[in-house]
Predict the 3D structure of the following.
Amino acid sequence: MRLLTRRLVLRKVRRSDWRAYWDMSRHPEVPVNAGFPTPKIPSDTRKAVALMVREWGKPPFRRTEFSVLRKTDGAWVGGANLRWPHGGVAELGYSVHPRLWGNGYAPEAALRLIRWAFLYKGAHRVQATCWVKNKRSQRVMKKIGLRREGILRGYLKRDGTVRDEYIYGLTRADYLKSRHGH
């Protein structure tokens, strides 16, 4: 399974990707901003990636995790995923290695997943949550056309801290309308 953009290849996550995920996750701002538990040891990440591989597209969780690679050199950029909490609703997630922040990789990968969700997987809605303190991700959400719909107070507890998250969303109808300039 591969999805292509102008500069990126999104391919199904592999067990061997765990080292790249570990390297990215060791930067404290990544798990904090993305809202996943901070891995303590490499085997935590190895287990998490193995779970991503096993869950790929399978009910009930139906998570589809992609490794994001640069086309030019195959370098690992980050991860992007869709979760399917219930029929027709895709929840978007993404993380980019901090050394590559600011290159537009997150919006490019996210836009490709949104297109795939709406045009090929039958989604009627794509949504995402974002920590209220994560300004970078808020800019990505705006850039990819997701609208901030509200705040989820006390939504996520990570590393002992309960935090608020913004919820963003885009309907298939709005996506198709924006693509055709209406």
The first strand starts at residue 2 and ends at 4. The CA atoms of residues 80 and 110 lie 7 Å apart.
